[in-house]
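Chapter summary example.
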Amino acid sequence: MTIKIRKAVESDSHQLWLLMKELAIFEKYIDSFAITPEIVLDSGFKKIPQDFYCLVAEDNNKVVGMLVYYFLPYTAQNRPEIYMKELYVIENYRGGKIGEKLVNALKEVAKLNNCGQIKWTVAPWNEAGKKFYEKLGAKENRDWLNYELNL
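The structure predicted for these 151 residues follows.
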């Protein structure tokens, strides 16, 4: 197994969509999952500016992991931040430090873009995810509560 971490390209769109769908099943929101392969292609690669950016983990031309992110350009610190929207590695590749490699690659993107922070959320029931992030040195932020307004 030779894992390569790289920036996603347009031809990855369908494989990314498959991983996004797997993630929706894993995180139990598949009933409201509205992403299509065309949306991934248009929003992530054809639209200017892009709605999201993505890093992928590849094994022999197969995308086996993804990290979807976007920039938060305006902050009180006058430095952008990165919001990590999705991190997912297919099940039979877990435990091989692929998630860690993806997060480390995102740290490099953050440094190149003068970002002060990487932010994300994790489901409270996802104990493995919480342990993974804490192992990387992340700390739970209890200063803020998440709110949402459905339209």
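To summarize the output: The longest strand covers residues 62-72.
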